[in-house]
Amino acid sequence: MREWLWTFLAVISILLIVMVGVTLGELLNDIAGGRMPVGLMGVLMFLKLPDVLSTIIPIGIFVSIIWGLGRIYRDQEMAVMRSSGFGWKMMLRPLFNLLLPISALLLAIDLFLAPKASDVAQLRLEEAFKTAAEWGFQAGQFHVLSGGDLVLYVESVEKDGRTLRNIFIQQRNEEREQVWIAERGYYWLNQETAERYLTLENGQITEGGIGTLDFGVLTFSRNDIRLPEPERRNREVSLEARPSSEIMFSSNIEEIAEMQWRLSPAIAIIVLGLLAIPLSHSSPREGRGGRIVLGILTYVVYANVLYTCRSWLSKGDMPPWLGIWWVHLFGLVIALVWLHRQGRIVGKG
């Protein structure tokens, strides 16, 4: 139990660092693409942790059991235990003492915590798109609004986060096109109408017809331009953010697939834990790395089949009663048969 627990904590720590780095890269990509404000990065990193834990805990517990038992086999402790009458069934008690609490924790994360975190993250993003003070403009980047009819570029933003320097705007209206250039500007929000405005100072407007030479130039000391509403995300709650209580007894095929998927990690921990016992069996001179590689390959196949069945189920290509349950059942049968066969080979027990 102690061998497995400490190894599990070490593996989880390493995987958590890796997954946090991957999540951070995805968030930075969204920031660079203008799909997320910088101010929300820390909050969204925290809100994505339940999904990250749901991903790494099953493989973490699987690898830790193989690693811990592999050391016992390699140091020939298992040979002494076997000769003293220790059978594979005696491993089940410490194994389930470890698996059941972690499985219950993962079940709570997937059924309650992860959907709530996803809903809060979606809500915060929507609020960021609606709040000009939080969204603002990112310096050195072209912002395409109104389906390409308005393009805005800001060279720099001062420390107050509100004052803009060297602004370029290209605006298209039916058959006319305007190019705005200003030295300075700032944006503000009309509290009564909730409309966003950009005030420009010391600038110039070049206006002309599309495909003609009819151009005019106008200079100004101050000019206000109303900005279109930023692209709003659909407030309709995504399936991943729906509470489990709403979709648990649903007849909708996509909601059935989502509910089965939320239950899968907790079940997979039990199946993988039982598979880890025969997978960890090795000869005294056999290295530990080979069994770990075999275990990771087993996990990859198991996870990919689950993903594939989830896709088939959500598309209606697989009956709901079969769903992804057969994958867990098949893995459980393989684990029990393998354990029984191994017990007969090395001794009764």
Notes on the structure:
The longest helix has 39 residues, at 92-130. The model is unreliable at 131-135 and 344-349 (pLDDT under 50). The protein is 56% helix and 18% strand. It has a 6-stranded antiparallel beta sheet, with no helix packed on it. It contains 10 helices and 6 strands, in the order H-H-H-H-H-H-E-E-E-E-E-E-H-H-H-H. The chain folds into 2 domains: 2-130 and 238-346, no CATH class; 137-227, no CATH class. It is of the alpha+beta class and 349 residues long. A hairpin with a 5-residue loop joins strand 2 and strand 3 (163-173). The chain has helices at 2-32, 41-47, 49-74, 77-83, 92-130, 132-135, 244-247, 253-279, 288-315, 325-346, and strands at residues 142-145, 150-157, 163-173, 176-189, 196-209, 215-227. Helix 3 (49-74) packs antiparallel against helix 5 (92-130).
